[in-house]
Amino acid sequence: MRLSRYYAPTLKETPAEAEVISHQLLLRAGMIRKLTAGIYTYLPLGLKALNNVAKIVREEMDRSGALEILMPAVQPADLWKESGRWDFYGRELLRFVDRHDRESCLGPTHEEVVTDLVRHEIRSYRQLPVNLYQIQTKFRDEIRPRFGLMRGREFVMKDAYSFDKDDAGADASYWGMYEAYARIFKRLGLKFRAVAADSGAIGGSFSHEFMVLADTGEDTIVACPACDYGANVEKAEAICPPAGDLAPCPAAEKIATPGQHTVEEVAAFLKVPAASVIKTLLYVADGKTVAALVRGDRELNEVKFKNLLDAKEDLRLATPEEVTAATGAPVGFAGPVGLSLPVYADRELALANDWVVGANAADAHLLHVDLGRDVNVVSFTDLREVAPGDPCPKCGALLDFTKGIEVGHVFKLGLKYSKALNATFLDEAGKEQFMIMGCYGIGVSRIVASAIEQNHDDGGIVFPPTIAPFEAALINLSPKDETACAKADEIYAALTAAGIETLLDDRDERPGVKFKDADLMGHPIQLTLGGKGLARCIVETKDRRTGEKGELPLEGFFEAFA
Ligand code: ATP
Ligand code: MG
Ligand code: MG
Ligand code: MG
């Protein structure tokens, strides 16, 4: 590619709207341009980087046995109503009606669509497991789109969905994806860490986020310097404080007299890692645990208030109006009321004096719960948040806090969508069973920005070679000199023939401009020819990352270079 005919409009000044370095450099290097808030056009260089990331993601997904499909961006509301997410998802879901007044949305994620696909196609256990993925443009109407490609409204995601016939298979699918992700981020040349982002689901740690370590990251990671323990502080902030620090929450006393249990006891009871327990409230009805609050909990697989509803005839679900009347919280209020207790995924329940009531989500509140009869608080532990220097729950070393950017997320979904959408298969015994699902996302466009956050210097981007739009820049300092041009063409042809993607800077520009642009765009190798070097019959080389310079003979350059 010749820069004179390329479209990479570099900027000298840092655009005022760009707060973080990746956003600044993506604009300055002529890689992206903003159309409107959170929505960008990829220019040729930016698109090449994006495609390089996508290529590695695709190769590793294929290697893992996942199958690529492409699902639609526009999704019908009906499916979202079936899954229950139409009411819940909130304003990140961009909704609209088409000309026939059919409610629709722009897909922020594809659990509904893929489950709908699979429920119509898969009938037998023989067709399982299956893992379907796509690399596709998502739309989320983020409240604060910012930092360029880091948090867009429109962005490119790889999303995969696994369907298994049993739990062991679902776990294998999960860990298969976990390993594929580790390979992907390694190949991309990123410093990353997989951290527990535990959903708190009973049965273990089946949600991990892959974090690129960078000071500008919006997430805080608790990481052990001595072992592989790592957790998203927001999701799993619980580290057991010394026993003396345990104190019952004053609010709990209004409800019942709590007994105190250690984090280890609660964690063992819930079969979750101690690190995911920050506050525990166990409610027991009829000897069964009804629900528990674990920090970051989104779904309590087996333990649901449903047990309670099933057990007590006089209990019923409250309507949103009843909740509003009782709590004064407006309908649509999504936060917790009183003590919050997430029960079903994405729903909140709270316990008040004589009844259990929750935030105003449909089917998330119970009326007429009689404490003591129906529900007992059997355990209450109020923990402080983990702080740097706390002991690692795994090995006891002192924990560090670092900032990270979430570039990937693997999640064991269990039966959530297969139940809601009735995705079943016939097992070996001919019995109908729900498929067990997992979902796995990678922020393909966010990775481009994260790579720059991690790899840049005063001169600009220092792309990891696997992401770099071009491997080499070939700078011709004497574009008006025929010999120089002929030599440049020769070298360019040899590099291209060898599969080394090269950007030949043949512009009629000052050397300083050319060097600056090459640095800014971040090509891993710079080769300079012309000027004084031409007289000495050499090509100058520069390693963008180390700045190390060298010389190679013009005659037989390619042999020497290779
Ligand atoms: P975040 O916590 O940053 O909002 P998320 O947890 O909502 O992300 P997921 O639903 O887990 O995102 O989506 C999978 C991946 O998609 C994320 O790990 C992230 O890399 C990417 N992603 C999510 N939202 C955005 C966005 N607004 N812009 C760019 N990439 C995004
Ligand atoms: Mg989000
Ligand atoms: Mg997140
Ligand atoms: Mg996530």
TrEMBL record:
Keywords: Aminoacyl-tRNA synthetase, ATP-binding, Cytoplasm, Ligase, Nucleotide-binding, Protein biosynthesis. It is an enzyme of class 6 (ligase). Its EC number is 6.1.1.15. CDD domains: ProRS-INS (cd04334), ProRS_anticodon_short (cd00861), ProRS_core_prok (cd00779). Residues 38-464 form the Aminoacyl-transfer RNA synthetases class-II family profile domain. It catalyses: tRNA(Pro) + L-proline + ATP = L-prolyl-tRNA(Pro) + AMP + diphosphate. InterPro entries: aa-tRNA-synt_IIb, aa-tRNA-synth_II, aa-tRNA-synth_II/BPL/LPL, Anticodon-bd, Anticodon-bd_dom_sf, Pro-tRNA-ligase_IIa, Pro-tRNA-synth_IIa_bac-type, Pro-tRNA-Synthase_IIa_type1. One of its GO terms (cellular component) is cytosol. Belongs to the class-II aminoacyl-tRNA synthetase family. ProS type 1 subfamily. This is Proline--tRNA ligase. It comes from Solidesulfovibrio carbinolicus.
